[in-house]
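Pilot study result, target chain (92 residues):
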Amino acid sequence: MRVLTLSTLFPDASRPNFGVFVERQTLGLAARTDVDLRVVAPIGLPPGPLRLMPRSAPLAQLPLEETWRGVGVQRPRFTTIPATGGGGMPRR
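Predicted structure:
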């Protein structure tokens, strides 16, 4: 079975405790021998020089691809607008 995990809530070196519930589920799937797993964990960054701010700089330094606890993770970037609070994001 081929599985794609797509989540902005996935741990990384700058936030190792971020989204641990997603990580736990993902590692559980990866442990199965019948699963071909791909993880895409997009990183939201502000535009231009705002990426150098203390909150964003560690995220900007993350590799585009890495292995996290034995699972390959791709971390594409997307632009976020600071101080919007994610108002354009869908809510439950």
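One observation from the pilot: The first helix runs from residue 20 to 30. A full batch analysis is planned for the follow-on phase.
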